[in-house]
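Exercise 3.2. Students should predict the tertiary structure of the chain below and write it as C-alpha cells, then compare their answer with the key that follows.

Predict this chain's 3D structure.
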Amino acid sequence: MSETTPVSATDPVLAGYRASIDNIDAALIHILAERFRITKAVGTYKAQNALPPSDPGREERQIARLRKLAEEAQLDPEFSEKFLRFIIDEVIRHHEQAAGK
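Answer key:
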C-alpha cells in the first residue's frame, strides 16, 4: 500500500464500516433537519401567541428522559446531555429570533 492510497480502499472491512457510518451520518442530518423544521413551527407559534421562547421545565424533563434512554442504549448519558443541550440552545436561539428578541 502506498502512502497516498487510503486504508479503506484496500481494506474491505474498514470500508464497510465507514460506509455504514456515512449512512448513519446522513440519517442524522436528515433527522436534525426535520427536528428543526418542527421546532421552527413551534417558535413561530410561540411568537404569535406571546409565549416565552424557552420552557425550562420541559427542557429538564427531556434531558432526564433522554439520559435514561442513553443509558438503556449504552450511550454515555453525559455525551447525550451535552448533545441535547446544544440542540436546545440552538432551538431557543431560533425561538428568540422568531419573537424578535
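Discussion points: The domain at 7-98 is CATH 1.20.59.10 (Chorismate Mutase Domain, subunit A). The chain has one domain: 7-98.
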